[in-house]
Amino acid sequence: MNSRKEFFRFVVGVGMYLTTGFLYGKTKDSSSLPDSVLPAGEEPVSESDPTVKALGYHIKKVTGDSSKITDKKALAKIQICKNCYNYTALNNGWGKCNVLNKGVVSSQGWCSAYAAKD
After folding, report:
1. What are the two backbone dihedrals, phi and then psi, of residue 55, each rounded to the nearest 5 degrees?
2. Measured in whole angstroms, how far is the alpha carbon of residue 4 from the centre of its chain?
3. Which of 67, 85, 101, 111 is deepest in the core (most CB within 10 A)?
């Protein structure tokens, strides 16, 4: 690098690269998963699956798209998978969803197909 200007461009470029990678490069980190161990032989549903996307499912309710939920107060209080009619618990943190055919969902997850248990 022959000048301060080139050095500055280099530093700004590296900073932008690292920031972009940090913001857009994360797909799923372990902090977004429930604390309990996945049931043997099971994988979590993929948030990139078309059906999962259409339902607005997210592994934790706080990271979800609340625009798909009509009653935001319900979302904040009880609208999570473990309180849903379609959810069948496999262990403390994971279960099967009757609406989604593949994988397991987090007990703390949510989607727009929530149906309260009777």
Report:
1. -80, -10
2. 43
3. 111
